[in-house]
Design a protein that fits this description.
Elements (H helix, E strand, L loop, with lengths): L7 H8 L3 H9 L6 H14 L5 H8 L4 E6 L7 H14 L3 E6 L8 H4 L9 E4 L6 H7 L8 E4 L10 E4 L1 H15 L4 E5 L5 H17 L8 E3 L4 H13 L6 E4 L2 H13 L9 E6 L12 E4 L2 H17 L8 E4 L2 E3 L10
Parallel strand pairs: 1-2, 1-3, 3-4, 4-5, 5-11, 6-7, 6-8, 8-9, 9-10
Antiparallel strand pairs: 10-12
Helix pairs in contact: 1-2, 1-3, 2-3, 5-12, 8-9, 10-11
Length: 341
């Protein structure tokens, strides 16, 4: 005999409450006392009852989906941010759909298709260099769902964002290297037009000036946050007759690429050059040498971004653009030391 699908009335009978109370406990748990909510949840579990999210979203005129735009899914930096986003969204019964924007820069319409309320209830962008076509669609007002930025931000400031204190992080890095005795410090930076690059470079230059230390433009190595960019910077560093004794890198990935390429050429870190990264991805503490870097609270960054977006979705009126900045922490490990005498 075919087993009957449990209904909300079955849950109400087991819990000893009305169907209205069951409905509120499952759809708006904050409106029900915790003791009652626990009884209802236990009854729902016992009955095998599952909320029909599709039907509920249809009644609410929502898709139940949040689209997250990630510039490179292969970059381990994004894993903890995505975990934080997923945790916050799952608590609110939203699904997460991730789009890798590497292809988007070739075909912007691929993302523009999601910028309509019939496809997604909101957008979280982790890519600060989205094409103008995408940003224009997001601000068109023609049924576009709310969009906020996480980690990076839009250069013109049209969107709310959650980000780390990037300038402060690079200031901490330069202060650490200066305290060790380094007077000639170079930079391996991200792309010129990237907001993270600009913010971190501004912090470096401001701190060098405050300390009375010079900066040689020849010691700026342009990169793209990747391992290969760090390796290319290492080759350029090796070609110099006067080399900086320390390097600040805009990402851990570039720091790893730099250190590994130097190792191939028999140049030890930090004996011959100190290296500081930015991000504190999981491998940073296990790398050889363990990387001195700026720790970003990536999980909290993702969680906060999702909560901010949910607030925008729930609001019945237009919200002011808001910016939440999370502090970073300098983690000192083995890749930095005093320069050779």
């Amino acid at each position: 005999m075919e087993k009957k699908t449990p209904k909300i009335t079955d849950v109400a009978r087991l819990a000893g409450v009305s169907t209205a109370t069951v409905s509120r406990a499952l759809s708006k748990p904050e409106t029900v006392a915790e003791s009652t909510r626990n009884i209802v949840l236990a009854a729902a579990e016992k009955a095998g009852y599952r909320v029909n999210l599709s039907a509920r979203n249809l009644r609410r005129q929502r898709t139940g989906t949040i689209v997250v735009l990630v510039p490179n899914l292969g970059n381990p930096f994004f894993s903890e941010i995505l975990a934080g986003i997923e945790t916050a969204l799952s608590k609110a019964d939203f699904n997460m759909f991730v789009v890798d924007t590497k292809l988007v820069h070739i075909k912007p319409h691929l993302v523009s298709e999601y910028l309509h309320a019939t496809r997604a209830d909101g957008i979280i962008a982790l890519d600060g260099s989205l094409p103008d076509e995408v940003l224009s669609a997001a601000t068109s007002g023609r049924g576009a769902p709310p969009m906020i930025f996480a980690c990076e931000w839009s250069p013109n400031g049209e969107f709310s964002s959650v980000r780390a204190n990037n300038a402060r992080g690079s200031e901490l890095a330069i202060s650490h290297l200066a305290e060790l005795g380094h007077r000639n410090i170079g930079i391996i930076s991200g792309p010129k037009d990237n907001v993270l690059t600009q913010s971190r470079s501004a912090g470096v230059l401001a701190r060098l000036e405050a300390l009375g230390l010079p900066f040689d433009p020849r010691h700026l190595f342009q990169g793209d946050f990747s391992l290969d960019a760090g390796a290319r910077a290492a080759l350029s560093w090796l070609d110099l007759t006067e080399r900086p004794s320390a390097l600040f890198c805009d990402s851990d990935q570039m720091a790893f690429g730099f250190i590994s390429e130097l190792a191939r050429h028999g140049v030890p870190v930090p004996d011959d050059v100190s290296v500081v990264g930015f991000d504190d991805i999981d491998i940073a503490s296990r790398y050889i040498p363990a990387l001195t870097t700026l720790h970003q609270p990536r999980y909290r960054l993702g969680f906060s971004a999702a909560e901010m977006l949910l607030g925008h979705i729930r609001s019945t009126s237009s919200l002011a653009i808001e910016t939440k900045i999370l502090e970073v922490e300098l983690i000192i490990r083995d890749s930095t030391s005093a320069p050779k005498a």
